Amino acid sequence: MFQLGGLVVTLVNGLLGLILWRRLRAAFPRHGALIDGACAAALLLLGHPALLFAVASFSGLRATQRYLPDPLSMIALGAQVGLLLYGVLLGVAAVARAVLRALRKARSATDARAITHAQAGIDSRAGADAQAAATDARAASDAGTIDAPGGGAIRPEAVDETRRRLIVGATWALPAAAVAVSMGGVLASRQRPVVVRVALPVRRELTSLHGITIAQLSDVHVGSFMDAERLDELRDAINAVRADIHVITGDLLDHHVSQLELSTRLLRGLRPTRGQLFFCMGNHEYIAARSASIPAIMKGLEEAGAQVLVDEAREVRLGGDRLWMGAIDYPSRARPGEPARRPTVDGLARALGQMQDDGAPRVLLSHHPGTFRAARELPFDLMLSGHTHGGQISLGRIGDYALTPMLPAGLYHNGSYEHRGRRLHVNAGAGGWLPVRINCPPEITLVELVPA
Q1: How far apart are alpha carbons 43 and 172 in whole angstroms?
Q2: What dihedral do alpha carbons 200, 269, 71, 50 form, nearest 10°?
Q3: CB-CB contact of 201 with 452 (8 Å)
């Protein structure tokens, strides 16, 4: 399946490269050899991630991360995104041209009908004369000139050099803009995480909870362009908000148990002011466990100070009041060699069943935000999720519809949502497979409990 995806992307790369090559050759005919060499080198040097993905599936993609310097891999993946953006722009332009042609054709048909009705009253002789004049005009046009009423000749219209320069400029400006935007996204993926604030109303009489904060980190993906230096930046960023409780909603590791060392180093460096750190399992913890075991992954996380919750809940005492913190397992079937996992509805029932319905706020951690659809009628106050990375490319939001590449795959993938008093916040993540973020910076979510 993944190899098929790599093959499709490779074929798309070749098609877009061919389109770009032909346009550049037409725009700059004197520099054909230079354009040939530049296009071939760009596709070979910058298109290798998709090609390796097609040949060796995930192993090929991981090889680029493991053996190539991070700057080269990030430039290659950024250029890949830029090429795909160029394809999207070409598609949008093609649709716009098709719509304009359809409108012009409809207008021409309307004008033709109007002319036909106007000519209906002309007598046959006048019509014959008009036809003869039209025939003469066409003949003159074929000869390259049109006779003017005064006996002179009208020469063909001269080429509009300004329009020609605009077309030539668009030939290279469009792909250049796509690459520039994607490379800006590469730089944005390394910026300091933004702090997104979420208010959680709690009962007024629970005064010990007023002002309590929960900081959420998600989808760090240690190992995917996430080295020790970058992890230290994330550690310092989340510690800087001075939250009472820290939570991590899965995908701390990326794909191998060897990443546990850096992951636990990050956990040991976190400093929640009330000393509590909670963790829920993501799909990549299970991927990493294929090189070891789930108990080994969980043990390493717990020894670093995390309370790993799997379909369970804990009471968190804060002064004279309390809140409930629960988490469910990643909603997926167990693969060979993995422990069986409960269905999502059973995991929800088990975790929420351990939370007393006593008016204390109930926070639920779930790596996959799609769980909210099954949980939104159940008794909890806030679900914190991740998994989607916010789409990594965002064009804004209309109501509940976040305009990102993830939109066709699900509704809940960026920001906050509410359904009959049940709240969901989807963290945009701190890392990602692709080191590109456009209008979707790395995120730390800060939940503050406020009096209702």
Answers
A1: 16
A2: -60
A3: yes
Position 410 scores a pLDDT of 87
Please state, as a whole number, how many other Cβ atoms lie within 10 Å of the Cβ of residue 118: 9
Residues 78, 187: Cα–Cα separation, whole Å: 10
Considering just the CA atoms, what is the radius of gyration of the chain in Å? 31
Beta strand extents in 281-336 (DSSP E only): 307-309, 312-318, 321-327
Which amino acid is present at 186? V
CA distance 169 to 161: 12
Asked whether residue 162 carries a pLDDT value surpassing 80, the answer given is no
Nearest of 84, 60, 64, 83 to residue 74 by alpha carbon:
64
Q: Cα–Cα distance between 385 and 400 in angstroms, integer?
A: 16
- Amino acid, res. 392: Q
Task: Give the whole-angstrom CA distance, residue 404 versus residue 82.
Answer: 16
Contact indicator for 24, 172 with CB cutoff of 8 Å: yes
Identity of the highest mean pLDDT range in 48-57, 79-88, 418-427: 418-427
* Spatial separation of the C-alpha atoms in residues 49 and 182, rounded to whole Å: 16
Residue 60 has pLDDT above 70, yes or no: no
Question: What pTM was estimated for this model as a whole?
Answer: 0.80
Name residue 195's beta-bridge partners: 444
Q: Counting beta carbons within 10 angstroms of the beta carbon of residue 369, is it exposed (0 to 12), middle (13 to 18) or buried (19 or more)? A: buried
User: What was the pLDDT predicted at 91?
Assistant: 85
Listed residue (436, 439, 443, 406) closest to 76, CA to CA:
436
Are residues 348 and 371 in contact, defined by beta-carbon separation less than 8 angstroms?
A: yes
Provide the 3-class DSSP secondary structure of residue 273.
coil
Looking at 93-236, which runs of residues are DSSP E strands? 146-147, 153-154, 194-202, 213-217
User: CA–CA separation, 241 vs 443, rounded Å?
Assistant: 12
Six token digits for residue 32: 């054909």
DSSP string, 331-379: SSPPPTTSPP---HHHHHHHHHHTS--SS--EEEE-SSTTHHHHHTTSS
Report the pLDDT averaged over residues 17-31: 79
Q: Distance between CA atoms of 119 and 127, rounded to whole angstroms?
A: 8
Beta strands in 127-174 (DSSP E): 146-147, 153-154
Band of pLDDT at residue 170, cut at 50, 70 and 90:
low
Over 90: is that where the pLDDT of 360 sits? yes
Q: What is the tens place of the pLDDT at every residue in 414-426?
A: 999 999 999 999 9
pLDDT of 224-283, one tens digit each? Answer: 789 899 999 999 999 999 999 999 999 999 989 999 999 999 999 999 999 999 999 999
Predicted pLDDT of residue 90 = 83
pLDDT value at residue 159: 55
